[in-house]
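Possible race condition, two jobs.
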Amino acid sequence: MKKTMKRFLVPCAAAAFTIGASMISFGAVGWQQEGGVWRYINSGGDYASESWKKSGDDWFWLDSDGEMAVSSLIEDGDDHYYVNSAGSMVKNQWRELDNTDNSDDEADTCWYYFGPNGKAYKAASSGKTTFKTITNGEGITRRYAFDTEGRMLYGWVDEESNRVTDDDAWRTGVYYLGTNGDGSLRSNCWERLEVDDDENEDDDFDGYYWFWFNANGKKLTDTTRTINGRKYRFEENGNAIFNWYSLASSPNASGSDLYYNKPTECWLSQGWFKSVPDENLDPEGYEDGESVWYYSLKSGELVKSQIKKINGNTYGFDEYGKMMYGLYKMNLDGSDIVSYEEIESEDDLPEEGDAWDVYHFGDSPKEGAMKTGSERIEIDGEEYTYEFKKSGSEKGKGYDGIVDGSIYIKGRLLKADRDAKLEKVNYDGQEYLINTSGKIQKKKTNAKDGDDRYYCTDSKGVVTYEGNDKWTKEKED
C-alpha cells in the first residue's frame, strides 16, 4: 500500500508547536483525520483515548472520546499539562487559564507554568510552600510558588501552599507574592502593602504598612534589624513600626522611648527630629498636639534631663526628651538637670540666695541653642537685661553677684528705671546705688535721681547718705 503524507498548519499565538508535517496517516493504524478531528488508531483497531501519543518531537492528548485535545488543561493522574491550539503539549511556558475555583476571593483567571517535561509545577507532596526558579524570555530569574493543583500562588501565602485572603492576611501570611499578574516571591526587599487594621488609631496611619522580606521570602517579625545602614523595628505581625515605641513604663528609664520616622520611612531616628509627644511618654504634651524637637543618640535613645552640646551648640532637654526653649531656672549636677522651672512671669524670677541658676535657650544661632553673653528678655511686658557666662564649665549660666561693677541676681541685671535715673537696691545686706545702665555708683557725692533726691556713696557704691537736701560736711557734723 502506498503511504500518503498529510500536512496541515494550525496557527498558535502562544507557542510555535504544530502537528505539521510530522502527522502522517497510516491508513488503519496511527493518526487519522475524520471530519476535521484528529484521532489515533491503535494497532488493535480501536481509538486511543485518555493517553498521550507522539508525532515527531511533540506529544498530543487523546481525550475520553478519542479526539485530540486542543487549547486544554489536561489532568493525567496527579499531574497537569496543557496542549495549545495545535494540540501539542506545552513545555517551559506560562499559561493564563480560566480559574475553576469560584471562590469570592479568587480571580477569574489563574497562571500555570509547565516545565521541561510538560508537567505543571505544583506544591510539594508535603504540602509545604516551596518555590520554583523560572527565567523569563528576558533572562530575568524569579521564584514562584504553586498550589496542589498547579495554580500559581499570589498575594499573602502561608507555609502550607495556601493563599491567605481575609482581612488579617497581613498578620498571618508568611510570604508575599505580588498580584495575580505577577506572583514572584519578594525577598531581600521592602514591600508597601495595604492592610486592614482597625486597632491603629495613629493619625499618621494611612491604611498601609511597610514589610521586609528576608532572602528566604519570609517576612521579618518581632525583631529589630539594620537594613542599608538604618535601624528598624518589626512587630509580631511583621509590619515596620513608625512614630513612638515605648520599652519601659517610666519616662525616665534608660532607652524607654524610641522614635521611628513617619510611615514613608519607619527607620529609627538618630539625631534631631520633630514630633508631637507620645501619649504615654508625655500626656500633657500629647494633648497640646504641638510638634517639638527631640534629639536621639545612635542607639535611638532620647537625650533626657540633660544639657548637651550638639554640633557646636548647647541645648537643654527635659525629662521627656523635649528640647527646652525659653528662660529656665535650674539645678544641675554636671550636665544632668536635677530640677527646673520655666520662668514665664515676674513671679517666677528667682531672688537673691535662691538655690537656682538661670539659663536661656533662644533662637540664635539655632532654635533652642543656649544663650551666652548679654540678652534682653521680655517678661510680663517688661524688658530685662540678662548676662550669661560665655565660657568654662558654667557656660550659659547667668551671672550672680557683683560682676564688672554691676549687680546680677541669677543672671538678671539690676538697673535703675530710666525716669528715676538712679536707684537704691539691696544686695548682700547692703544698699547700693545704681544707674540706668546698672553700674554701681561709687564715691558719689550728692548724685541726684529723677525725683531730686540726693545720694552719697563710698568706694564700693554703698549708700552713705540719702535725702532731699544736698549733703554737706556740716550736716555730717
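Job #2 (started ~2 s after job #1):
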Amino acid sequence: MNKEPKYEEAYAELQAIVHRMENDELDIDQMTEQLKRAQQLIKLCRDKLTKTDEEIKKILDSTEQD
C-alpha cells in the first residue's frame, strides 16, 4: 500500500527535484521520471491546499452563524 505523503513532505520532495534540475544533476532519463513525479506532487499539493481552504471557509462560515 502506497501512503500519500503529507503536504510538507510532498513540497520538500518537489523542492529537491527542482534543485536537482537547476543544478543539472539529472540525466535525460531521470529528468523525464522526475518531471512526472513533480507533476504528481504539484497536483497533490494543489488538492490539499484547495481542500484545506474549503474546510477553513466552512469553519469560518459556521462560526459567523453562531
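The mean pLDDT is 93.
Logs attached separately.
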